[in-house]
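Title: Prediction job returns without error message
Component: structure pipeline
Severity: low
Priority: P3
Assignee: unassigned

Description:
Job completed but the reporter wants confirmation the result is attached to the right record. Sequence as submitted:
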Amino acid sequence: MTAARPAHVEAPPSPLVGAQRRGPARDAARDAVRDAVLEVLGTVEHGDERGRLLGFPTANVAVPEHGLRDGVWAGTVQVGPAEDGPVHVAAVSIGHRPTFYGRDGERLLEAHLLDFEGDLYDRTVLVRLHVRLRPQRAYAGAAALVDQLLLDVAETRAWAQREGLGARLTTP
């Protein structure tokens, strides 16, 4: 099950917002999460593990037909939102993965959780897309794509630091 909604639609406050109401750093993190552009709730599915082979393992979530713009985003991923699970900073790609599949590839949301190690298969996640970093592009090959992914991750880290989410990163 996957759902997308604009973050500014009236919705009941999440347990995460309530849990972050203590202190200025938590207020900044809460505000950054609240100002998300779009949210996607879904279950992590098995993929072709291409991200893992490139050194960027991803949580793959089916994409709703509308409401999400293809591209690479800086965002957050909450694991197990119904249980008030942890929130991680993530570089998120939405699109057809044109370097490997052209325009005919399956449209997919792939979230690379920064500084995360673990198994997310079959877990429910809430992906929040905050800032669109760039459009989807086809690269000449895997090496060129990896070079760009390194830049995307660095830009996502910088975004997280600016937004008061640095405590969610284990490496600067």
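Comment from assignee: result matches the submitted record. The chain has one domain: 3-166.
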